[in-house]
């Protein structure tokens, strides 16, 4: 167990190192001035000062080792080019909690509804409830988030005036964007849970448990639910990691000061430190999420053990 955890941790560090290295050189080897329009109209001596300030006057490999040293020993992701005077870390600290709040509330809204619909569809296979759930799940997955967001704004904010149209503040400002974010989860988890539940229901050990007198409640919660959740964990945990990245479209529609808007502005503005910093953040969250999946597998199903390879 300890050897497995140590090995996995080393693999995670290597993966993160590769992400940092590949992203850094992909960004800094692009042709053109990294600072772009920010300095192109300034005198040459001022441009040189800007380049020196950001260390862009040095060879790429030297910039890489300096960046790596600052990141490892100081947790410094550099300073944004598009937002002078603001570090990448400070931007992430300000935007990530906002984006994650919308994402987390959206999943809290969408996942339970999706799982419940999937279970009901499995028990009512081939009946009206099953067809309704499959149609609803397809609809939830197919509707673009920006279309749903504008519809919610029109009916619940403009017509009924139950919620504010845009802005950020108390919980009431988060309701509509959270629903718009979470509707897709309803469709995804309903379909996955239905398939997984039906698969488990047809297993021999379920039929054997039913034949020896297990009640419907015991079968549902002690056997079927536990085993049916294994495939669901595979998609839920990575979703929890990606909620921190924000959604540019929703944050733009609802004027939410999250991290999503920085994804587009950093790419269009060639803000290399922001691009690299956000990529590192997403990679770290996703890698640790996949590690958590392995641990949850063991917790859900005692038959699964993390053993050392021989």
Explain how this protein is built.
- The protein is 72% helix and 0% strand.
- The chain is an all-alpha fold and 310 residues long.
- The protein has a domain at 96-259: MetI-like fold.
- The two termini are 13 Å apart.
- The mean pLDDT is 84.
Classify the secondary structure makeup into a structural class.
mainly alpha
- Compressed to H and E, one letter per element, the order equals HHHHHHHHHHHH
Mean pLDDT: 84
What gyration radius follows from the Cα positions, in whole Å?
Answer: 24 Å
The low-pLDDT segments are none
Instruction: Give the full name of the CATH homologous superfamily of the domain at 96-259.
Output: MetI-like
The CATH architecture of the domain at 96-259 comes to Orthogonal Bundle
Largest β sheet strand count, sense and barrel closure: none
Distance between the termini: 13 Å
Residue share in β-strands:
under 5%
Q: How many β-strand runs?
A: 0
Helicity range: over 70%
Tell me the CATH topology of the domain at 96-259.
MetI-like fold
Helix tally equals 12
Rough outline:
flat
Task: Give the CATH class of the domain at 96-259.
Answer: Mainly Alpha
């Amino acid at each position: 167990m300890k050897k497995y955890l140590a090995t996995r941790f080393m693999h995670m560090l290597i993966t993160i190192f590769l992400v940092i290295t590949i992203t850094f050189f992909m960004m800094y080897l692009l042709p053109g001035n990294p600072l772009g329009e920010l300095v192109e109209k300034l005198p040459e001596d001022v441009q040189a000062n800007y380049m020196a300030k950001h260390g862009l006057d040095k060879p790429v490999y030297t910039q890489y080792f300096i960046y790596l040293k600052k990141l490892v020993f100081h947790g410094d992701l550099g300073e944004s080019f598009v937002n002078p005077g603001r570090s990448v870390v400070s931007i992430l600290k300000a935007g990530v909690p906002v984006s994650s709040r919308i994402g987390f509330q959206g999943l809290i809204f969408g996942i339970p509804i999706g799982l419940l619909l999937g279970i009901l569809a499995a028990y009512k296979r081939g009946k009206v409830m099953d067809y309704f759930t499959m149609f609803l799940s397809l609809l939830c997955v197919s509707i673009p988030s920006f279309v749903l967001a504008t519809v919610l704004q029109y009916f619940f904010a403009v017509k009924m005036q139950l919620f504010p149209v845009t802005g950020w503040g108390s919980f009431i400002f988060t309701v509509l964007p959270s629903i718009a974010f979470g509707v897709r989860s309803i469709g995804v988890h309903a379909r996955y849970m239905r398939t997984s539940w039906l698969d488990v229901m047809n297993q021999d050990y379920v039929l054997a448990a039913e034949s020896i007198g297990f009640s419907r409640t015991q079968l549902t919660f002690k056997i079927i639910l536990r085993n049916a959740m294994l495939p669901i964990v595979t998609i839920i945990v990575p979703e929890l990691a990606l909620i921190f990245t924000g959604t540019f479209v929703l944050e733009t529609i609802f004027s939410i000061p999250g991290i999503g808007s920085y994804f587009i502005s950093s790419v269009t503005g060639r803000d290399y430190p922001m691009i690299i910093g956000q990529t590192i953040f997403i990679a770290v969250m996703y890698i640790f999420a996949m590690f958590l999946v392995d641990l949850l597998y063991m917790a859900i199903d005692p038959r699964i053990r993390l053993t050392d390879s021989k």
